[in-house]
Amino acid sequence: MLKTIQRSSPHLHSCITSASAAGFQPNCLFLQQLLQTSGLFYSVEMATAGKVIRCKAAVAWEFNQPLVIEEVEVAPPQEKEIRIKIVATGVCQSDLYFLCKCLNQTMFPAVFGHEAAGVVESIGPGVTEFQPGDTVIPLFMPQCRECRLCKSPKTNLCVNGSAGRIDERSFERSRISCRGRKLLQFMGTSSFSEFTVVKEISVAKIDPAAPLDKVCLIGCAICTGYGAAVNTAKVEAGSSCAVFGLGAVGLAAVMGCRAAAASRIIAVDINPEKFEKAKVLGATDVVNPNDHSRPIQQVIQEMTGGGVDFSFECIGNVEVMRSALESCAAGWGVSVIAGWTDMQNFSSPPIQLMTGRKWTGTLFGGFKGKDGVAQMVRAYLDRKLMVDEFITHNLRLDQVNEAVELMKNGRWCDPKLRCSLHD
């Protein structure tokens, strides 16, 4: 890559060479970021346009089995598609859920990962919004800007979105293959691959000044939790809130409640080691349900003199969904489901809703993909949004199974493992 920099910018190459002589050894990620912020894009990638790229990917061949680092083939982008060099990707609980818990086991073999950031390597025919070298975040929630849903301010859904639906056509549409087999592109993204191909409507262009190994987390968890508070619930200044589950989504919900000027934010989790980070992000109270003999909803009702104005379930547990609803104040309380599950149905006595509580849910925090992600990256660059605090480990792609095990076992003090997987 240094040879490419020398050809593209002799002055920049001279600066790097001088720094190296002084003992500084830049890695691949640093050089990519430097090129992006300098307005350059290394021609090594551009030379691959129109060709099949062979690269590394973490492949899930079977349900609940370790991922395997394989050489995969990534086909050139087709009509209205973009091929992206993934610079960094988060490891999200949704990846773990579909790998180890989901009842739909027809999705294998697959390449997981959906919370990433990278650089456009090449574009397919008909692409007008992007050029090679653009810094981007791939989206699992597309925004075509043309359908009736995209044109409505009432939703962030798009008629082109799949929302977790998987069938045979999902494999047919994949541009990633290994050993002669098509691999499912999880949520249309597959960021556990060094390169991936996504639809133009499923990519957000972001400020090239943004550090990709940080803002990749905006591609899922941070938008989901933060948006649940500011977009879906529309938390009001001076209100009281309760957030159930302090993973990355829950912490982002806490942060969103603080941004909306809530006066009391109760963070709820059975792991007290998560409480300190919750306080950093805005929690005013912390509660461990295991410290109480009564149901947690009763505890919160008593703490608040009748229930909170807003509550958020950020786990994907149907029993906790009911607890969150019943923690709300009668008459006006709003409870938002932000945690994902498709294994069980949720329920609650009708009187809980008949007395004025509202029960709703959110995907991606109500953010329209392209618009919302660019907006959140801008907020981070303006220091209005905390992101760095969510990252607990930085690992290479070939350490992805270590990341999965850390998330499974919950052995770490930080609330949720967020790994930047890069070379």
CATH superfamily of the largest domain: Medium-chain alcohol dehydrogenases, catalytic domain
What is the class of the largest domain in the CATH system? Alpha Beta
The number of E-state strands comes to: 19
Named CATH topology of the largest domain: Quinone Oxidoreductase, Chain A, domain 1
| Shape, principal axes of CA atoms | globular
Distance between the termini: 13 Å
Q: What is the level-2 CATH architecture name of the largest domain?
A: Alpha-Beta Complex
Total domain units: 3
Largest sheet: 6 strands, mixed
State Rg.
22 Å
- Portion of residues within helices: 25-40%
Mean pLDDT: 86
- Give, in spatial order, the strands making up the sheet with the most strands: 8-7-2-1-4-9
Pick out the low-confidence regions: 1-15, 17-25, 37-45, 411-420
Strand content: 15-25%
Structural class: alpha/beta
Helix segment tally: 16
Indicate the multimeric state: single chain
